Amino acid sequence: MKTHLRFIRNASFILFSMISVLLTGCSESEEADEFVHVPYSEEFEYKVDAFADLEILRYRVPGFEKLSIEQKELLYYLMQAALEGRDIIYDQNGKYNLAVRHTLEGVYVYSQDRESSDFTALETYLKRVWASNGIHHHYGGDKFLPEFSKIWFEKQVRTVPLHKLPLKNGETVNDLLTKLEPVIFDPAFFPKKTNQETGVDLILTSAVNFYDGVTQAEAEAFYNTVKKPDDPQPIAYGLNSQLVKEDGYLVERVYKKDGMYGEAIRRIVFWLKKAEKVAENRKQKAVIEKLIEYYETGDLKKYDDYAILWVKDLNSHIDFVNGFTETYGDPLGIKGSWEALVNFKNIEATARTTTISKNALWFEENSPVDERFKKKKVKGVSAKVITATFLAGDCYPTTPIGINLPNSSWIRAAHGSKSVTIENIIDAYNMAAKGNGFFEEFAWSVEELDLLNTYYAMTNNLHTDLHECLGHGSGKLLDGVDQDALRSYGSVIEEARADLFGLYFIADKKMLKLNILPNEEAFKAEYYNYFMNGLMTQLMRIEPGKTIEEAHMRNRQLITRWVLEKSSKDNAVELKQHNGKTFVVINDYKQVRQYIGELLAEVQRIKSTGDYPAAQELVEKYAVQIDPVLHAEVLERYKKLNIAPYKGFVNPVYYPLYDEAGNFEDLYIDYEEDYVAQQLRYSREYSNVE
Ligand code: ZN
Predict the structure, then answer these.
(1) Positive/negative CA dihedral, 47, 48, 52, 54
(2) pTM
(3) Ligand 1 centre from 498 Cα, in Å?
(4) Going by C-beta distance under 8 Å and a sequence separation of 6 or more, which residues neighbour residue 153?
(5) Can you list the domains of the chain with their CATH numbers?
(6) What does the pLDDT look like over 560-594, one tens digit per residue?
(7) Ligand 1 centroid to 165 CA: how many Å?
(8) Is the Cβ–Cβ distance between 650 and 58 less than 8 Å?
(9) What is the per-residue pLDDT across 641-678, written as a single tens digit (0 to 9) for each?
(10) Dihedral angle, C-alpha 253, 256, 259, 262, nearest 10 °
């Protein structure tokens, strides 16, 4: 499962999947770690490129310098293994994608007509193809169309040297152009990457290449017969293959060393074998060995064995994902898209979540809820915070900010899962957002602006930690209360409970005692942003005339509207007008915290007693309806800021240094490469799929 940051501004938009692992024992210890959140240097240039609805960013790899030579060597091999799979995801996303990309790249490099508007349009289209690993939008899945003319394009393709064009099995340039014409120019030809509409054949109407010549009914029948219904430990049937019809029979073309994507997989295995030799420890070595076995055989039982070893490898500093993983791309949810992520543990940030978790009982005892609803024993969840060093496949160039794997439910139940937050990616989002005008537009005064610019990145991470590590795990149901008693309101109430828990304690002096926040001002950044978001700016995601449906958005509006109403007597929070615009003003942070405590107590009571009518009233009264005038105002102001709704990333470049005997000596990191250069280089050096 992946957590995506879907909109630029707020990491609080994150929809975190449940964190279910890495339980740490709770203890009373309160040793203060040194305050560690070092803000990044302002000099680093985060923005690399911008086109269509995307902005491409760099991300930093803080802590890279501190890695040992051995760790750098391991990282390097894992990153090479990640690169070798690049073309697989293009082919999985659609069978024409690689031909389209190679042809476009040929024109981009060899065209002599570089000043024309057609060429500019080709450049934009190619950048979009790179960003989506294909011709359909990476997020929405709709096909996007080029703005250059067909005639111009055909003329340019004819100027590309033949050996630079993807001509297969004696194809001529005419054949290639005929093949690609509807793919590139016809909006009706495979308009959707992954079709989810009901009533049509989802396989035949989806562009993804997981099935060929097979109908949805045939595929479903095929997988229903291979599955064993009573198997307590089912493998992920069909995860690593394409289902095709050969001589009238359905067969799986398995992704393995001597199967489909064999060339790419052999290259991946080549690097994994090098990585295995320099693994940090036995556990990690076993993980890599099992992954190699799986890639060589395509045996999904070995994949499960690998996943179990991987989920138990908690102490290695370096970690990675490399394989056919998430099934969102397949309309039937069976086939895994190839992805890779290489990372190392962010020890400082992980220490933060560990500190919080260790003190879980203190938080429970000091929370403002009724004693009857408190747990006597409580364990915090310590999520691992990681630093990404390399993104590839389905994680590149647009990337999740959190990952929770493996996906197999029986493995999760029996062995747990790893939940990671990719903090250097979140930081890149936050840093790039500075100066995009968002806070300047929506903050009431210079005072709030300073607060946000100084502390928000830090407090937002912390609020997420409190929400995930403590909030969801706190409190208990009274005996006999059905955990589904709140029915459709259950998830909003649950998210509100976790958010309120985080908001209540982020303003506690305990944060200073634990050295998690630097001073008594910092929490105000989280409060101000939370209210600005909940009362106003999150509405930019809602179309005019619609109401709020998504649980996290509902919970934010619930909390902020409730507190706003409470404040009508004392103006602790208010909405003020200035120059025809609406602003959130917080006059009394202490009082706001008081209200948050009151609401937390009430929401916990609703949850603990299963009070459905009270849940319904809270949600329907505060969380759903939108003031249409304020909504229109927010949309208008947001539109003027012209902020790209999606972000992608370039990877750093890593240069290995070998001594005269060919031994690995060091690894250098370089952030200079731009988006186009990186994509063209990857295409030149890592094209492994025919
Ligand atoms: Zn949550």
Answers:
(1) negative
(2) 0.82
(3) 6
(4) 107, 118, 122, 146, 184
(5) 95-185 (no CATH), 262-643 (3.30.540.30)
(6) 999 999 999 999 999 999 999 999 999 999 999 99
(7) 49
(8) yes
(9) 988 888 999 999 999 999 999 999 999 999 999 999 99
(10) 130
